[in-house]
Specification:
The protein is α+β, with helices and mostly antiparallel strands. The protein folds into four domains: 120 residues, no CATH class; 137 residues; 173 residues, no CATH class; 118 residues. Helix content is 55%, strand content 11%. The chain is built from 20 helices and seven strands. A hairpin with a 7-residue loop joins strand 6 and strand 7.
């Protein structure tokens, strides 16, 4: 049945005409249509062959549509069809240039070029600083040997440590003598002082405020607060020895209360190795620290050396430095280009996300006004483009990483930010390459992988939740029971890594054989524990995990054969053929503010305000107040 109030104020305000002239014409058409309806009896019905919809029939109150409402429905359908088109279809339909696609192509080229250059520089930097740390270990650590330089598994030797009090002072004397004889080194090392004389070394002792042990009668005096005492070791220490020097300062080292001791000094050097035709040598300052770790108080004091590298401005060959500025300028230009293209990409994708939400609100209003039903959750999620969200995230990461890279190359930062910068640039580049999958998804052959992962994701999450609970139980059990007796279970992180390796069939025999034989019960427990875990996860959990993915893959293949399930929104939108794309029906300006520039938007708002009549219309309706806020949500996904 057709109701007299079929053309309501909400229909006119939300889905009105393009101008006041169109509004008056539509209003006059509606008056003629309403007068014809008044001549009908209540049990008469009007049907229209053109009102067929690809969605569920609307409620009884709105089963008949006026010509004006039918026009709005077709206009809304074309708007949504254009919204869900890929860049190729939009080009065919409206000759819309794919700005976002071009920006992503340019971005992936620039970002990959930037990452390759930074990876090369970072590798050289890390390799250079690592080699210098090994050199410093040979020069300043007593007892250091070359077999300690190779990280072997299982380790061929234990950590470097001292066990006697005299070894503590001898190790410090060895470092001070090596520092005083720095000129003997093959490396071009210098002191940080202005006249290249030996700079004072700083020895710091971290001890408990009170720590006396009387083992013969099982008693002690203990205060857990830690005091820090630092003293400068001058060149005279090399002649008298550090023990005599500390006694002259009335400093007595209480090893029962000693927690940690550090010896700090600095060395400057220049790296002559050129990384390119225009690269100049780099100047470094190494802040070296020798650490004596006695925190466990088990009679074994571990010794380690760290060398933090700080890049400095070089004051060398002025002519060569001027020539090498070309390399610095080119790298800076690349960094600024990457930042600029990422800002443009972020702006376009953020604008697309915002416009998609405006179109979602307009679609919800249309469904409620026309069909008296809300838009389903699946229909609302059609307007959420996770690809654009991912692109916005990688743009932010690349902007931060490029800014850090520029600071590193310009020596604006005093701390070593290479690792932080590599994390930002690496994750950003990873997401950029992932974004290419979106454009491959426009082709049926490549879209199978994406759709399979999307279909299997909810089941995988639920499956992994159950599998992780079992995995966590095995992890905590192995860490608790086998930790003291097995080198692969000494910490919670090592236990988890060991179990994950076992799932993938890695190093199984070594895991069984490296168990200590000190406890026969724990030896048997280790066997039962490992056999149970390996059998459960390899033969059961992994097989079920693969079956979940294969089930999703079979479902996607069936969808390709029988058709994909569609939400109410997709049923309303329908599909557009190649003939529709080239027919020119999408050339109509049905998206008033959808893809215009800021200047065009402001011009339209100004013209609309000039033409609009503030006085009420003949039926008491005002002009289309909400038109510019609602109808301008057309959104491009190119």
């Amino acid at each position: 049945m057709i109701r007299k109030d079929n053309l309501s104020q909400e229909n006119v305000d939300n889905y009105g005409c393009e101008s006041d002239e169109d509004y008056r014409g539509a209003f006059k058409t509606n008056q003629n249509f309403q007068s014809s309806v008044n001549n009908l009896t209540e049990d008469q019905s009007i049907t229209s062959e053109t009102s067929t919809r690809p969605i569920t029939e609307p409620c009884e109150e709105t089963s008949g549509l006026s010509p004006f409402s039918f026009h709005n429905e077709n206009r809304m359908r074309r708007k949504l069809q254009f919204f869900f088109m890929n860049p190729i279809e939009k080009w065919r339909a409206k000759r819309r240039f794919p700005y976002k696609f071009v920006v992503q192509v340019v971005k992936i080229v620039l970002v990959t070029m930037q990452l390759c250059l930074f990876a090369h520089s970072r590798y050289n930097h890390v390799n250079y600083t690592g080699d210098n740390r090994i050199t410093f270990s040979h020069l300043f650590l007593k007892g250091w040997d070359s077999y300690m330089e190779v990280e072997a598994y299982p380790p061929s030797a234990g950590p470097l440590a001292i066990y006697e009090k005299s070894e503590f002072f001898e190790t410090i004397d060895y470092a001070t003598i090596g520092y005083s004889n720095l000129s003997r080194s093959i490396g071009p090392y210098s002191y940080p002082s202005s006249d290249n004389t030996m700079a004072p070394m700083k020895l710091c002792l971290y001890t408990y405020r009170e720590g006396q042990i009387f083992g013969f009668n099982e008693s002690y005096v203990f205060n857990p607060e830690i005091d820090k005492l630092c003293v400068s070791l001058t060149e005279d220490v090399t002649r008298s020895g550090v023990e005599v020097f500390l006694k002259s300062k009335d400093i007595v080292v209480n090893f029962s209360a000693l927690v940690k001791a550090t010896l700090r000094f600095a060395i400057k050097t220049v790296n002559f190795k050129a990384y390119g035709p225009f690269s100049a040598p780099d100047c470094y300052k190494f802040n070296i620290e020798i650490i004596f770790d006695n925190g466990d108080h088990d009679g074994q004091t571990l010794i380690s050396l760290t060398a933090d590298a700080l890049r400095l401005y070089c004051k060398g060959d002025v002519k060569y430095v001027m020539q090498s500025s070309i390399d610095s300028i080119l790298r800076s230009v690349l960094n600024y280009f990457v930042i600029l293209i990422c800002v443009i990409s972020f702006s376009l994708c953020a604008r697309a996300i915002y416009r998609a939400q405006l179109l979602r609100i307009q679609t919800q209003n249309f469904f409620w006004v026309t069909y008296r039903k809300p838009l389903s959750f699946d229909g609302k999620m059609e307007f959420v483009n996770f690809w654009y969200i991912m692109i916005c995230c990688n743009d932010v990461l690349l902007i931060i990483g490029s800014a850090l890279k520029e600071q590193i190359e310009r020596r604006f930062t005093e701390r070593d930010s290479w690792d932080i910068c590599s994390v930002f640039l690496g994750i950003g580049n990873l997401l950029v390459w992932f974004g290419v999958l979106r454009y491959l998804g426009f082709f049926k052959t490549y879209n199978v992988v994406i759709l399979t992962l999307k279909k299997a994701a909810p089941k995988i999450v639920r499956f992994l939740l159950c599998a992780l609970l079992i995995y966590g139980g095995f992890t905590f059990c192995g860490w608790l029971v086998l930790g003291p007796y097995h080198m692969k279970f000494r910490s919670l992180a090592m236990t988890s890594e060991c179990l994950f390796s076992l799932i993938n069939g890695d190093d199984m025999f070594a895991t069984f054989t490296t168990m200590s034989n000190k406890s026969q019960m724990l030896w048997w427990f280790c066997r039962i524990y490992l056999y149970s875990f390996i059998s459960l996860y390899i033969y059961v959990v992994l097989s079920l995990f693969i079956s979940v993915i294969m089930d999703a893959y079979d479902t996607i293949k069936r969808y390709y054969r029988d058709g994909f399930p569609q939400s109410d929104l997709k049923q309303f939108v329908g599909s557009s053929s190649l003939e529709d794309l080239t027919s020119g029906i999408f050339q109509e300006d049905f998206d008033d503010f959808g893809n215009d520039s800021m200047f065009d938007i402001l011009k339209k708002i100004f013209d609309c305000c000039k033409r609009r009549d503030p006085s009420p219309g003949p039926t008491g309706y005002t002009s289309l107040n909400n038109k510019t806020n609602i109808s301008g949500t057309q959104h491009s996904q190119s």
